[in-house]
Amino acid sequence: MDDILLDIKNLNIEFHDHDAPEHVVKNVNMVLKRGEILGIVGESGSGKSLTAMAIAGLLRRHDITTDGRIIFDGKELLGAKRSELRKIQGNDIGVIFQEPMTSLNPTKRIGWQVEESLRIHRPEMDKAQRYRLAVESLKSVELDEPERIYGKYPHELSGGMRQRVMIASAMICEPKLLIADEPTTALDVTIQMQIVKLLQRLNREKKTSILFISHDLSLVKRLCGRILVMHDGRVVEEGASEEIFTDPKQDYTRKLIDAIPKLEKPEI
């Protein structure tokens, strides 16, 4: 169907770095529509980040095997040639990781790093064009003085600013899909909400589909229209965000919801 951007069918992922194979993602099925924000929740080790890495084509190791189908915008990604994946990575699919300091190169200025996808996917652009788009992208993620930020190094920015830089880098080619893998974990609560509102605005203005991966159900509830719950490598529940929170079907989902911190009422 034309409104489906991503269609995952029976995805399996196995690690072969131990004596016996470890089955870490088990028959996962998932559909993401164009312009939709889909949340994947689950505790650490549930398989949610590995699923995201498989979509982005980042599981290219000799000790990992994958099986199933990942169809993105009509193209089969699982088993695609590396050259084909390179055309999509950073261009049609952007990725934001949990900790920007491990993703940003400490020896390169911010502007150089934001422009990286342009150098790969828009080789016809000259230096001035890349600079203009990089500054525009930094401005679009609500960074003050983007021209000044362009010349800074990662260590000169706060955690929240570095995460905005990562979003600017991921969005500069205006991808059809943005994968946000635990993008707010290392940030304080106030900055987390700012990042969520920023992602909402980018989705609204750019029509970018977003796959938002988190263990924080309170953030997922605010951002996502639909939620998949993963446990032990499987999708154990799926539904509209409101339905998941008001009428969860699985005990595991209820436990995740019960674990959300609640503000205690002050004693009178």
Structure write-up:
The chain is an alpha/beta fold. It has 2 domains: 4-92 and 177-258, P-loop containing nucleotide triphosphate hydrolases (Rossmann fold, 3-Layer(aba) Sandwich), CATH 3.40.50; 104-174, no CATH class. It contains 12 helices and 10 strands. Strands 6-7-8-3-9-10 form a 6-stranded mixed beta sheet, with helices on both faces. A 4-stranded antiparallel beta sheet has the order 2-1-4-5, with helices on one face. The longest helix has 18 residues, at 189-206.
In the CATH hierarchy, what is the superfamily of the largest domain?
A: P-loop containing nucleotide triphosphate hydrolases
> What is the β-strand count?
10
Distance between the ends: 57 Å
Runs in which pLDDT lies below 50 for 5 or more consecutive residues are 263-268
CATH architecture of the largest domain: 3-Layer(aba) Sandwich
CATH domain class of the largest domain: Alpha Beta
Beta-strand content: 25-35%
Helical fraction equals 25-40%
Please tell me the overall pLDDT: 91
SSE succession: EEEHEEHEHHHHHHEHEHEEHH
Strand order of the largest sheet: 6-7-8-3-9-10
CATH fold-level assignment of the largest domain: Rossmann fold
Entry summary:
With 268 residues, the chain is α/β, with parallel strands linked by helices. The protein folds into two domains: 4-92 and 177-258, 3-Layer(aba) Sandwich (Rossmann fold); 104-174, no CATH class. The chain has helices at 48-55, 82-88, 100-103, 110-114, 116-121, 127-140, 146-150, 159-171, 189-206, 217-223, 241-246, 251-258, and strands at residues 4-15, 22-33, 37-41, 64-72, 75-76, 93-96, 177-181, 209-214, 226-231, 234-240.
